[in-house]
Amino acid sequence: MTTLTSPTDTLTRDALTVLQPGFVGTSAPDWLLRRIGEGLASVGLFGRNIASPEQLAALTAQLRAECDDVLVAIDEEGGDVTRLEVRSGSSFPGNHALGAVDDTALTRDVAAELGRRLAACGVNLNWAPSADVNSNPDNPVIGVRSFGADPLLVARHTAAYVEGLQSAGVAACTKHFPGHGDTAVDSHHDVPRIGVDPEVLRARDLAPFRAAIAAGTRAVMSAHILVPSLDPEYPATLSHRILTGILREELNYDGLIVTDGMEMQAISATYGIERGSVLAIAAGADAICVGGGLADDDTVLRLRDALVAAVRTGELSEERLADAATRVRALAHWTSVSGAADRSGGAPGTEIGLVAARRALTVTRGESYAAPLTEAPYVAAFTPLANIAVGDETPWGVAAELRRLLPGTETGSFTGLDAGALALAEAGERRVVAVVRDAHRHAWMAEALDVLLSARPDTIVVEMGVPQSPPRGSVHIATHGAARVCGVAAAEAIAGI
Questions:
Q1: What is the pTM of this model?
Q2: Annotated active-site positions, please?
């Protein structure tokens, strides 16, 4: 390819510094190490990069051999969105479970333990917590990633999470500014639109971000959402009015602003990642997150050269790019000082995640209540399509845990209009445990439960999403999340342990 840059000049180094790219593999490729040597200051990790804590520690050590204060970022919310435990399910319940308990000390302790585990592996920037107020029950991408629908509850738990995570020397990146909770569209696929007045947005959606800033969050992630009352033209990630006017000037935030993934369709399909990155930096963003889908050297070079070209044509000021790069380096310095002790080896892990998951359970006995299970049941999992943030690699449900407690437990996964009838046929005479996820959002799932409960009123229902539908079944267990540890807690309740 034709390049407009020299890898040694200040402008080129600044353009590399503001990028947060991903890569493929469990060790760093040569191209990535070379770019770090040329000025790249951040790397983003995904599930594909992680096989074990030991391997992850070796990978981050490999990166730091090139630059000892490189930012190593990860999308580790706990709960449904996990990268550390992508193939087994998380040891920590997610935000919605913590919000259901509503004990900020517990939230702080969970985030601190998660931070210790990240720090022990050499990760020093976490794209978490989600501070979105889940005000739209039909939201397809936030749901249990939110602490809840009450802005004040979300605000106090967001602050507690930030404090806990950063106590371990891991920088929090509070997201998705100015709030992704009131959307019915997933920005991985299209541009969501929030049609509320500025007064509603400030009172509801901005409250958790104010709390996060007061708690000292080191980074904030922008959302690819259009809020016409604030900016009728540009989504938040590309909006000077929102990133600079509101986040910087109104909320007095002085830390790092990171974009959400630029290859998400809300940006890539409308502006393209090169132009989108230029507009984002010009709007006030400091770091460009890319690499969930585009994870190669060519992507890094394309974005680097687009930023340099924009400066040279006057579309982007050199001072704005330099300011962004300075903020990246400042955060890298903070993590190198705050996290040094933790990278040498964290304290042994506790079972705080299981404690939290147990406390988060809501158990409702129905009119046809039957005693806890003592014999192996049939687990019918009614499985919706996973959103991209969660992914389909991570297992969920209660079957594996029930099989451990009640050997002989069998299971099947069902989807679609005939799911209930198929589950009944497979279950035979065995007691049924029906596992659902956001039943209120899926008409076929509600229909499947109708069929199942009509024939088998002694069915136990486990809701592992947002429990918006009324409790049903002989016993209804709301876990407020689908993390592995939530499945453990639910299985214990089902078996009467």
A1: 0.93
A2: 188, 260
